[in-house]
Amino acid sequence: MDKTNRSKQARGTLARGWSCEVIQIDSNRRNYLGRFSWPFQSVYFALQQLDQLWRGKKTTSTLVPSICIGNFQAGGTGKTPMVQWTAKALSSAGYSPVIVSRGYRGELNKVATLVHTEHTAKAVGDEAKFHSEFFPVVIGKDRIKACTLAAQYCALQKLNKPILVLDDGLQHYPLHIDFKVVCTKSSSPFWMDTLLPTG
Q: What are 175's strand-pairing partners?
């Protein structure tokens, strides 16, 4: 059997395995509410695509090279430790990472804010406070304004090889991001999951 046929056979085997796994996972999850909400997945998908087309018409650059760590699943998938690991790896490679976070549940996240040592977790959010112990952090609900402030910080500090590491933001379509990383659960990858409101 030549290389091409072996490759096709391997892909076919994997596809069949994935299909069986998807059916098994879905059948285990479909309770009464799940069956009721199943048709609404198409509505959610259509609205999501329209939102992406509309808000992605015009994109804004981060002005500094950027990498985004995000996910497609509701709930925790390990984004925060992945952001920390990525920033440390970049720092070890000679880059100067600046983390940009939404500042979830932080009192100051309505305006783009550079996190200082005196800021509390209540003010900037738990994740941003944690990251700020190791790297410069900018928070803000408006990702474009937060990235702009982060880029200004890089310029003022004259950082060597600056790079922005975004904690979440894959669905922020108006923002142009140079490189994207998707975190998913190994026990339940996003390609085996269902869309909202079922998933």
A: 60
List the domain boundaries for the chain.
3-55, 60-183
pLDDT of residue 150: 97
Could you give the residue ranges of the DSSP H alpha helices within 56-112?
79-92
8 Å CB contact between 199 and 193 = yes
Please give the Cα distance from 109 to 131 (Å, whole number): 15
Rounded CA-CA distance 42/188 in Å is 21
Q: Is there a contact between 99 and 83 (Cβ–Cβ < 8 Å)?
A: yes
Q: Is the peptide bond before 162 cis (omega within 30 degrees of 0)?
A: no
Helix (H, G, I), strand (E, B) or coil at 125: coil
- What percent of the chain is predicted at pLDDT more than 70? 60
User: What integer is the mean pLDDT of 5-19?
Assistant: 40
Alpha carbons within 13 A on the beta-carbon side of 52 = 9
Amino acid at 136: P
**Amino acid making up residue 172:** H
User: What is each CA distance from 32 to 35, 36, 38, in whole angstroms?
Assistant: 5, 6, 10
| CA atoms within 13 Å, Cβ hemisphere of 13 | 6
Strands of the chain, DSSP E: 60-61, 66-71, 96-101, 113-114, 137-139, 162-167, 175-176, 179-183
pTM of the model: 0.67
| pLDDT at 125 (0 to 100) | 95
